[in-house]
Design goal:
Blueprint lengths: L1 H16 L2 E6 L5 H10 L14 E5 L2 E7 L4 H11 L4 E7 L6 H12 L9 E6 L9 H8 L5 E2 L9 E8 L7 H11 L2
Parallel strand pairs: 1-3, 1-4, 4-5, 5-7
Antiparallel strand pairs: 2-3, 6-7
This protein binds guanosine-5'-triphosphate and magnesium ion.
Magnesium ion binds next to α2.
C-alpha cells in the first residue's frame, strides 16, 4: 500500500523525462534514509555516508543522486558538474538541529543563488518532525531565509525560482510524498 502512492508520483516524474533529481543537504540530515525509504519502503539505520561518496540509484525512471555539500570542496565541484543536468533539487535539513541551521542556510542560499537554471525547482525538506524540539514550518522558513514559495533574487516574482518547504518525518513517512508531488507538478 505504501508503494502505491509514492510509486505513482515517482513514475509520473520518471515517465516525464527520465528525470534527474539531486538530493543534497548537510550530513546527518536524512538523505540516505530518504533514498532507502523510496527504494524499499523501509526505514533502515545507515552509517554516515563517507565523504565525498555520492549515492546513486535509479527508480521509476528517475536517477537520484545524493551527497552532502557540507563544507567540502569535492562535493562542490561535483555539484557544479551536475547542476546543468538536473530537473529538480531536494534539499534535506535536520529541522531539530538548531546548532547547524545557519550552516544549512548558507548551503541552501548558495544553491538558490547559484547558476542552477532558474526553472529548476528546489524542494526543501525540514526533516525529523517526529523529534522533540523540531522547528515549526514558519520558524524554519525564517531560519533558512526562504519565502516558502517563490525565491526571487532580484527578478520579478514570475521569473523567480520555485522553492517550497515541506516538513517531513522519514520515521513516520510523512511529508515527502507532498514534496515529490510538488516536484512533479513543477516539471514542465
Ligand atoms: N527521528 C528521526 N530520525 C531520522 C529521520 N530521518 C533520518 N533520521 C536519522 O538521522 C540520522 C542521519 O540520517 P542519514 O539518512 O544517515 O543522513 P544523511 O543525510 O545520509 O547523512 P550523511 O550520510 O552523513 O551525509 C540517522 O540516524 C537516521 O536514522 C526522521 O525523520 N526522524
Ligand atoms: Mg548518507
Amino acid at each position: 500500500m505504501f508503494f502505491d502512492w509514492i510509486w505513482e508520483i515517482l513514475f509520473y516524474i520518471g515517465f516525464y523525462k527520465r528525470a534527474k533529481l539531486m538530493i543534497i543537504g548537510l550530513d546527518n540530515a536524512g538523505k540516505t534514509t530518504l533514498l532507502s525509504l523510496l527504494k524499499n519502503g523501509k526505514l533502515v539505520q545507515h552509517p554516515p555516508t563517507p565523504r565525498p561518496v555520492s549515492e546513486e540509484m535509479t527508480l521509476a525512471g528517475i536517477t537520484f543522486t545524493a551527497y552532502d555539500l557540507g563544507g567540502h570542496q569535492m562535493a562542490r565541484r561535483l555539484w557544479k558538474d551536475y547542476m546543468a543536468a538536473v530537473n529538480a533539487v531536494v534539499f534535506v535539513v535536520d529541522a531539530t538541529d538548531s546548532s547547524r541551521v545557519e550552516e544549512a542556510k548558507a548551503e541552501l542560499q548558495g544553491i538558490l543563488s547559484s547558476e542552477l537554471p532558474m526553472e529548476i525547482p528546489v524542494a526543501v525538506l525540514g526533516n525529523k518532525t517526529d523529534k522533540p524540539g523540531c522547528y515549526g514550518r514558519v520558524e524554519l522558513l525564517n531560519a533558512l531565509g526562504i519565502q516558502g514559495d517563490v525565491q526571487t533574487y532580484g527578478k520579478s516574482n514570475s521569473e523567480g525560482r520555485q522553492c517550497q518547504l515541506f516538513m517531513t518525518s522519514m520515521l513516520y513517512r510523512q511529508g515527502y510524498g507532498d514534496a515529490f508531488r510538488w516536484i512533479a507538478a513543477q516539471l514542465r
